[in-house]
From TrEMBL:
This is Stress response diiron-containing protein YciF. It comes from Frigoriglobus tundricola. PANTHER family: PROTEIN YCIF. InterPro entries: DUF892_YciF-like (IPR010287), Ferritin-like (IPR012347), Ferritin-like_SF (IPR009078), YciF (IPR047114). CDD domains: YciF.
Length: 169
C-alpha cells in the first residue's frame, strides 16, 4: 500500500470497507441464529439485506474511482467479528448473551460509522460527489442500525439480562 495523496487514502478506505462489509455478510447470519430475542434476530436479518446492498454500493464506488474492490483485508473487522464469535460460542442464559451480542454488534456499527464518515469526507474533499453520496447512504443505514440496536438494548433484552442478575443475589 502506498499513500501519497488523499485519493490514495480514499481508495484504500473504500477497499477496506468492501472487505468489512463482505466479512459482515458472513457473520450476520451466525449472529441472527445465536440471538434469542425475536426483535434482535430481526435486526440482524434486516441488516444482512442492507449489508448486501452496501457491498454493491462499494463496488460502484470502486468503479467510479477506477480501482478493484478486492484484495484488501480489514483486520479491524476481523477482530470485531472474532469477539462476536466468542459470544456466540459462550455458554449462558439467553438474555445476557443477547445483551453481549448487542454490544458486539454496536462495536461493529461504531467502527463502520467512523470508517464511512472518514471515507465520505475524503470523497467530498476530492470532488468525488457520487462516491460521497454512495458512502453517505451507507453511513445513514449504519447509524439507523446502531439506533435499532440501542432501542433493543434499552428495552426488554437488557431488562431481562438485569433480571437474571437479581436471581443470582
Amino acid at each position: 500500500m502506498t499513500l501519497n495523496s488523499l485519493r490514495d487514502v480514499l481508495t484504500e478506505s473504500v477497499r477496506d470497507l468492501y472487505s468489512t462489509e463482505n466479512q459482515l455478510v458472513k457473520a450476520l447470519p451466525r449472529m441472527a441464529r445465536a440471538a434469542a430475542a425475536p426483535e434482535l434476530k430481526s435486526v440482524f436479518t434486516e441488516h444482512l439485506a442492507e449489508t448486501k446492498e452496501q457491498v454493491k454500493r462499494l463496488g460502484q464506488a470502486c468503479a467510479l474511482l477506477g480501482v478493484k474492490p478486492k484484495g484488501k483485508t480489514c483486520h479491524a473487522m476481523k477482530g470485531l467479528i472474532a469477539e462476536g464469535a466468542e459470544i456466540i460460542a459462550a455458554r449462558g442464559e439467553p438474555a445476557p448473551k443477547d445483551a453481549a451480542l448487542i454490544s458486539a454488534a454496536q462495536k461493529i456499527e461504531h467502527y463502520e460509522i467512523a470508517a464511512y464518515g472518514a471515507a465520505r469526507t475524503f470523497a467530498a474533499l476530492l470532488g468525488e460527489d457520487e462516491v460521497a453520496e454512495l458512502l453517505q447512504a451507507t453511513l445513514d443505514e449504519e447509524a439507523a442500525a446502531d439506533e435499532n440496536l440501542t432501542a433493543i438494548a434499552e428495552g426488554v433484552v437488557n431488562l431481562d439480562a438485569a433480571g437474571d442478575d437479581d436471581e443470582d443475589e
